[in-house]
């Protein structure tokens, strides 16, 4: 199962979601790897290297930093080795982003509630529509990140759904644990903050239900 975590906007939580989902899947007994397509920042690659330095108590999660040209081949190859291949997306309207949409079984689109993100979401949803004309089976869902439950957040959900993209019920709040855990090479499930941990568990359960349906 290939899960693309992508959005054309930078800083919306693609790497945060990739890492936390990877840890959640691993804890649930699945095998998982991450393909890091953000060759500029390599956030998940750096996260994995800190993680590997933590010793035996922390499970290894393979993360490969790859160029856009390799994404299709690598995801196909890794699909035969792992239950889940997570693609941590790059923040541009690039060929890699389009390829990620084309090769993913499910696409998760982190969205942070801000006007700027919503403007960029319109472009993203157009690209998604184009891809769906050649791949009607594509299942794409927005995941609200840094959610606070205020009026703006609720408006953002309406706007995203009006673009034809369903929003998952599970949302990630704006929490320090999401900022601290990556620097420690961990996911929040291995770190702290019960609220953050419940959010990630809920996201995993919702994803598993989508996969089963
Ligand atoms: N739910 C959250 N609560 C608090 N901080 C968050 C949350 N999600 C992400 N962040 C912080 O926001 C910043 C951007 O997140 P992240 O790196 O995951 O985004 P990204 O989409 O991968 O960015 P890029 O496009 O630069 O790769 C990071 O400093 C991260 O720790
Ligand atoms: Mg990133």
Give your account of this protein's structure.
The chain is of the alpha/beta class and 213 residues long. 47% of the residues lie in helices and 16% in strands. It is built from 8 helices and 7 strands. The chain has helices at residues 14-27, 43-52, 71-79, 95-103, 115-134, 151-162, 176-183, 194-212; strands at 2-5, 32-36, 63-65, 84-88, 106-111, 139-147, 172-173. Strands 3-2-4-1-5-6-7 form a 7-stranded parallel β-sheet, with helices on both faces. Helix 1 packs across helix 8 (194-212). The model has no long low-confidence stretch (mean pLDDT 94). Bound molecules: adenosine-5'-triphosphate and magnesium ion. Magnesium ion binds next to helix 1.
What are the low-pLDDT stretches, counting only 5+ consecutive residues below 50?
Answer: none
Number of strands: 7
The number of distinct helices, counting runs of at least 4 residues, comes to 8
Distance between the terminal alpha carbons, to the nearest Å?
14 Å
Radius of gyration: 16 Å
The biggest sheet, with number of strands, parallel, antiparallel or mixed sense and barrel status, is:
7 strands, parallel
